[in-house]
Amino acid sequence: MLKACLKEASKFETFLPSIFACLLFTPMTLILAALIGFAPLAAHAEVAATPTTTASSPLTVTGNVGVTSNYVFRGISQTQHKPTLSGGVDISHASGLYLGGWLSGQKWVKTSGTDDATDVGYKQNSSLEVDLYGGYKGSAGDFGYDLGLIHYYYPGDKVAANVSPDTTEVYLGGSWKTLSVKYSHALSDYFIGWGVKDVTKTRGSNYLEVNATHDLGQGLGLIAHLGKQKIKNLPVSDYTDWKIGITKELSVGTITAAWTDTDADPVAGSYKWDGKEVSRGVFALSFSKSF
What we know:
Number of strands: 18
Order of helices and strands: HHHEEEEEEEEEEEEEEEEEE
CATH topology of the domain at 2-48 and 58-210: Porin
Mean pLDDT: 85
Distance between the termini: 27 Å
CATH class of the domain at 2-48 and 58-210: Mainly Beta
Low-confidence stretches: 10-21, 24-50
Shape: globular
């Protein structure tokens, strides 16, 4: 049901409401919601614009939408340095359990990174990324923790000769005040399309990141990030990425301006797709709104 819904919705990648419907009413989401005591989602289709938890419900439902000049994930442009829209829905329980869905446009799945005439991509007719996740988080004083599972799904027509880019990761995070650290570990045989079908598997690829924020006052903030991506059995594609930026809180949302760069080798590491060096340093301007 989800794949069919998203395949149709991907024809209209800027029409976010249709994707939200796919995420909210897929059987997977309904089952996960039931596990944390969530009543049928249809009964909560008209939630208030602000996150709400009432005395009769321990649940909080929030949404978010955004636009960016360049969707960068772990230092790598997912949109060939082009702008895109994004949006998501999150459901959290007072116990600490949570689940959610997020989507964005992407342009890399239609190319498999060979950057030549033989490049037929991982999937054809693919222009969306859909992330489905769930987990448990809590805190003790200034310390916080987060354990969860996330699945990256790319709707489209699978190319039989290539591996699947769809990937599942387990993650563990910890935080102290404005500092946080997170470790993500791939459970799928081919992490985000890396590897050669039935020859080289990249299960066990991992990413370690450290993030920091600093409040400057007047709605301004600094953000900093350092990450290390390791590709199992393909060390030539390992890299370190970093980001520094500034945020501004407005009454209508948040603006973020950030510079991201990596030490990835675009040629040997296969980070040159369709003639674009997707691992090079970039400046991105983004706007997001939560409701």
